[in-house]
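Input chain follows. Return structure tokens only.
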Amino acid sequence: MTRKDEREKGEEAEDQAGRGGAALSAAARQAQQAIDSAKELVAQAHLDEVGAKAAQAASNLYREGRDRLASNEDMSQAAEQLTAAIRKNPLAAVGIAFSAGLLLALLTRG
């Protein structure tokens, strides 16, 4: 490979890095705008009402999920097997749950 080829490849890599940085910068600006919009919405909302509505929605989703689980035989058997595995190895289940939670927290931390 000649020096000219090496220089051209280096320039191409710099161009691509510059474009990637610009795209990243644009994405960061859009994310900041979304955060600002969300802050405005939260500031305008009554947090007690929002909390009550969220709790009601979560309760409804939980109830619907349990109903669907009970009506689906395969899912019901899988749930029973999972429950049995957790009861058999509770420490391993706690460790897996902790690890998954930690990984999720690290990924969403930003």
